[in-house]
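Box 3.1. Reading complex inputs
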Amino acid sequence: MSTETKPSERVTVETTLNGTEVEQTVPAGTLLSAFLRNHEYLTGTHRGCETAKCGACTVLVDGDPVKSCNMLAAQVDGATVTTVEGLADGEDLHPVQQAFWDCHGSQCGYCTPGFVTNVVALLEDNPDPSVEEIRSHLTGNICRCTGYTKIIESVQEAAARMDGDGK
Amino acid sequence: MLIPVAPQWETDVQGLKYANPETVEEACTLLRDHGEDAAILSGGQSLLPMLRQRVGSYDKVIDINGLPDLEYVRETDGEIRIGCLSRHVDVASSSVVEEHCPILADVAAEIGDVQVRNRGTFCGAVAHADPSGDPPVVATLLDATIVARNADEKRTLSGSSFYHGFYETDLSKDELVTEVRFPVLSAGEGAGFEKYEPTEGAYPVATVGAYLSLADDGRIENATLVTGALEAGPTPMDDAAEVLEDREPTDDVLTEAAEQLGEDTMPVDDFEGSAAFKTNISKKLAKDALQTALDRAENER
């Protein structure tokens, strides 16, 4: 995006989204979550509370988990964005997704994309987290179904399967 | 592709204008020209909810994330200097902070959740002046130096007198905080911070920061106590601090100061707790913060 020396109502966003270069011109007030869902049709990123509390809209920006309802799309210009759609390798689920599947880490599934993306980032930084570390890392993600027990088990299972190599 | 989408009005901050300057000078020029209705976007973790709820009168944002060389946490001339684009996660994991002013890491590591800490900036939180914010408490407690620039000049502001109630600071609308400096705590000095939050990651209901310096004979030379979230922003508790001065740092003395702090604070009843509850919790927080400050002051000796 060229530098806007005057405040502008439309912005051009160029970003690497799930490994693909995309470019879109959108209203400046477009949130990242809206950009992903309404402009890129990636509806795996869920909008929950819309107040940056529930974490359902978590995506990775340059590898860091962030809440996409609490960022403007303009802010990812030049960045790399990974959504839940970008985790699987073709038909093979990411080990974190597979572990959530196998351990029943999701019930209604609404919060799951946010948890999964956040857990991917956790295991990259910390391949063998303790339960306390998992809980602490996931305080920004709310699940109203599982009571979290199965989610914690999923993370532990994913960590064991990934065996510290990040894959 | 025919996929039903939510109407634009549901998702967008309607009519928002956006600028992303590439230099501090450009940012300051934009602030001079648009400061009255423009907000500075750094981490955006407090700003975006405000924009979405139409709190405040902003219809423009000036995104400073593209400004060069403002992401650093380093020690220079006896001060820890934090650039305005350093995130909470950077402060929490800084070895310089851990060595010279660990209270900053205590504060930064407990703000919001990991998603918020990845985006939110420490200097942004200092400047934003949320009455429940934690960085303002520590900026007041340690009398941080706040470096602000406008299109014409750069000036430094004192953290201990920076805040004036709800979201009010000494900053002008055309000013950009480029750096916040905290003192390196030397031997015999220590600081601690405690907060009560109803759920992890929520805004705190009560916070207390404590600073102590010890004289050579082990007595308390200087003490500072500041509360946050209980009143309209960081509130120095001078009478409670005075209890400590020139006394042996015994458990009883720390308790006496903590009790005094509780008596002096003036919280209000609200949905998060009664005034009496907040008073009681502030005593406990003060005692714990003082104990941490004392332990650090003694270990540094």
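In summary: Chain B has three domains: 15-63, 73-183, 189-299.
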